[in-house]
Specification:
The chain has 11 helices and 4 strands; from the N terminus they run H-H-E-H-H-H-E-E-H-E-H-H-H-H-H. It starts with 19 loop residues before the first helix and ends in a 20-residue tail after the last helix. It has 2 domains: about 20-135, Arc Repressor Mutant, subunit A (Orthogonal Bundle), CATH 1.10.10; about 150-235, DnaD domain-like (Arc Repressor Mutant, subunit A, Orthogonal Bundle). The chain has about 240 residues and is of the alpha+beta class.
């Protein structure tokens, strides 16, 4: 055994609690090693964080000697690897991201993705929860007022389109009005939850309860060509 080899855990080592779902569902699906190292270090830091709200900032992570040592051992620049790892974790729904300004400088706050933190972020964004010396940067809304193309909305705001997702998007396009779809993406962006499952849950809630303007799907649905996307740019990924 070399001098640099791990000597084993001491008898009374401190323990970092992690949800079982991290090992059963998340870890098997994390293919990027930098992402795995980054997420586990964030979980470690948050487990020791006191006070409310609990988050870690990008500046804190880039200056964390343990994390950066771990990323330094991987091919590529450590700073680029960290950004990529954080972006992947946000896209996969492991982390929630809020752009902030601290001490007059741009930064980013990262929260664990759970219901408590979603509610916390909603309070921060709405201004009902103030964090000392920290301001929320304006969240850019890439959903504009042009006519909705659900496939472009997905790619611009969530990620790469797959055949399975394309089929689900096609069903939603036929079921919900275009302005509902656009508003649902916009609401997901405001909440910093960029995944289709969340967008779809908004649409289903509006279908059950009615949208804020009181309209139902029947009131707002417009007749259209059901095959327009099959013939279009994304026809090759939509299964009929």
């Amino acid at each position: 055994m070399s001098e640099s080899s791990f000597k084993g855990f001491p008898a009374r080592a401190e323990v970092t609690p992690l949800p079982n779902i991290f090992f059963t569902e998340l870890l098997p699906g994390i293919e990027n090693l930098a992402e795995a190292k980054t997420v586990m270090q964030i979980l470690f830091l948050l487990s020791r964080r006191k006070g409310y709200p609990r988050f870690v900032s990008y500046k804190e992570l880039i200056n964390d000697p343990i994390l950066m040592k771990g990323l330094f051992s991987l091919p590529g620049k450590s700073g680029d690897l960290l950004r990529e790892a954080l972006d992947l974790a946000v896209k996969q729904g492991i982390l929630l991201h809020v752009p902030i300004e601290a001490g007059g400088q741009h930064d980013d706050a990262y929260f664990i993705n759970n219901q408590v933190e979603k509610e916390t972020i909603a309070k921060i964004v709405s201004g009902t929860l103030k964090i000392p010396n920290i301001n929320i940067r304006k969240i850019e809304e890439s959903v504009r007022e042009q006519p909705s193309d659900i496939y472009n909305l997905y790619e611009q705001n969530i990620g790469m389109l797959t055949p399975i997702i394309a089929e689900e998007l096609q069903e939603a396009e036929h079921k919900y009005p275009a302005d509902w779809i656009q508003d649902a993406f916009r609401e997901a962006i405001r909440a910093n939850v960029r995944n289709w499952k969340y967008v779809h849950s908004i649409l289903k809630r509006w279908e059950r309860e009615g949208k804020k303007d009181g309209r139902t799907v029947r009131d707002t649905r417009k007749e259209g060509d059901p095959d327009k996307y099959i013939r279009g740019k994304y026809g090759h990924v939509v299964r009929r």
